[in-house]
Design brief:
Layout: H1 2-22, H2 38-61, H3 63-88, H4 94-116, H5 124-133, H6 146-168, H7 173-196, H8 242-259, E1 319-323, E2 326-330, E3 338-340, E4 348-352, E5 355-365, E6 367-371, E7 374-383, E8 386-390, E9 393-399, E10 405-409, E11 412-417, E12 426-430, E13 433-440, E14 446-450, E15 455-459, E16 464-468
Helix pairs in contact: 1-3, 1-4, 2-3, 2-7, 3-4, 4-5, 4-8, 5-6, 6-7
């Protein structure tokens, strides 16, 4: 948490410095707002409208939602700095553009890490909605289709925003307004991109190349107008860890995507007279065989000593306990015959990162959530709400009593065994594969029925009509 806070502070300081430079007297020929690029002014309108409303409601809700919103706002301000740079500078080389994108990719990681570090939060659905959609800030590198990319990221948040609406629509309208305000940010951003950056980030055709202003002074020298603001400075050196590795990969990805067809420009042309298969004589013109010392090899130890142990990431402790009204079953591995028996109707169960294990829940409880599990077997009696399976692989669920709804999301391989009293259960699925529902027979066996994964949609003149394709079963 300390590393993440440190990164946030560095990014905010970078934004503050660049904002100060861009607003300094003389920066735009006297600081007249009319000389600020039109698309930067339009982005400012987005910040003053949907973003400001989202920030206001998040502050009213408070807690983790407010903290997360402040991170989102910082990310948008970092993006504004890049837009100001693009409006005043020519497009840089791929490597330098990767440097410009690095603060954005790092901040995306910061926002997502906050969700992961607060999985026990009561507002986890809010955090998840933001975490799933925040990569939309990377649209600046998604040429030639930045708008559709933002739409795709927005769709990724819908699963969690719908859960927020379902939970609070009759309880607290403030949370419903929060969903509307948050989603409107990305809707407005799509419209903004369509108008100003249809096929990718628009750069100035005049002015210095962005690389040239990277080392621009942060304050104007006496008697001279300062150059345009440079890109965000790279963050201070930090200890290598997994999150910085992820951030670097984000930056590299953005840079590679942005190159488009230019990705092959650095390759050298090989003419026919340089190809061995067209000039066999070249095989004998390689010159004398290189001689020299053999490659270094480590000497074998004189005595058999145990090799040094590699440091492995610290394992999270396995857990099966009741916390308030929530049963938490986490990080179980190769654990068979896990049982929760002392249950009440008001309780819920949250099963997270369990592998190759089985769990039985006796009695009647409110709901069950299975998240990030692999090869898990779950057996339960009765659930009055919903059983949700998210981000899992190879899951088997057996209902002994009744359950009204089973939701399967982002899961590969899920078998749901229904009881005779739960045949009216609704199976809701999205972004999942290899799903099967097993129906009991009179003989006590089960008949297996696949859940369709492929659909076709047709316009009937008034609306879109969707049906299951034949090959989907």
């Amino acid at each position: 948490m300390t590393d993440m806070q440190s990164l946030v502070e560095r990014l905010e300081q970078a934004v503050g410095r660049l904002e100060a430079v861009s607003q300094a007297p003389g920066m735009h020929g006297g600081g007249s707002p009319k000389e600020i690029a039109q698309y930067v002014q339009a982005f400012d309108s987005l910040l003053a409208g949907p973003v400001a409303e989202y920030m206001k409601i998040s502050k009213d809700i408070g807690g983790d939602v407010q903290k997360h919103a402040e991170m989102v706002h910082t990310g948008l301000m970092i993006e504004r700095v890049l837009l100001v740079t693009a409006s005043q500078c020519q497009q840089p080389s791929a490597n330098n553009f990767s440097t410009l994108l690095k603060p954005i990719s790092e901040h995306i990681q910061v926002v997502q890490n906050f969700r992961e570090k607060n999985r026990g939060s009561k507002l986890f659905n809010h955090l998840s909605a933001v975490s799933e959609s925040i990569p939309a800030l990377g649209w600046v590198a998604m040429a030639p289709k930045p708008g559709p990319y933002v739409k795709e990221m927005t769709d990724a948040a819908m699963f969690y925003t719908n859960r927020v609406l379902k939970e609070y629509k009759d309880v607290d309208k403030k949370h419903v307004d929060w969903v509307k305000a948050y989603l409107s940010i990305w809707a407005e951003l799509q419209a903004y991109i369509k108008e100003y950056h249809t096929t990718g980030l628009t750069w100035s055709k005049t002015g210095p190349i962005a690389k040239e202003v990277a080392n621009a002074p942060t304050a104007p020298s006496a008697g001279a107008a300062p150059p345009p603001p440079g890109p965000p400075p790279p963050p201070a050196p930090a200890p290598t860890n997994s999150s910085t590795g992820d951030s670097a990969s984000h930056s590299a990805l953005f840079a590679q995507i942005n190159q488009g067809e230019g990705i092959t420009s650095a390759l050298k042309h090989v003419s026919d007279d340089m190809k061995i298969h067209k000039n066999p004589g070249l095989k004998n013109q390689g010159g004398p065989v290189r001689t020299g010392p053999k490659p270094f090899t480590a000497p074998k130890p004189a005595c058999a000593a145990s090799p040094p142990k590699k440091s492995s990431p610290k394992k999270e402790p396995a857990m099966l306990e009741l916390e308030g009204k929530k049963w938490r079953v986490e990080n179980q591995e190769n654990a068979s015959n896990l049982v929760i028996s002392d249950t009440e109707l008001k309780q819920v169960a949250y099963i997270y990162k369990c592998t190759n294990s089985t769990l039985q829940i006796k009695g009647k409880i409110n709901s069950i959530t299975v998240d990030n599990c692999k090869k898990l077997g779950l057996v339960f009696d009765d659930v009055v709400g919903i059983v949700e399976i998210i981000n899992c692989r190879d899951i088997k669920v057996q209902v002994m009593g009744k359950v009204p709804t089973v939701s399967i999301n982002k899961t590969d391989g899920c078998h749901v065994y229904l009881s005779k009293s739960s045949l009216a259960c609704e199976i809701v699925s999205a972004k999942s594969s290899e799903m099967n529902v097993l129906i009991p027979t009179e003989s006590g066996d089960f008949n297996e029925f696949p859940v369709p994964e492929q659909f076709k949609s047709l316009w009937n003149g008034q609306k879109l009509v969707t049906s299951v394709t034949e090959i989907a079963g």
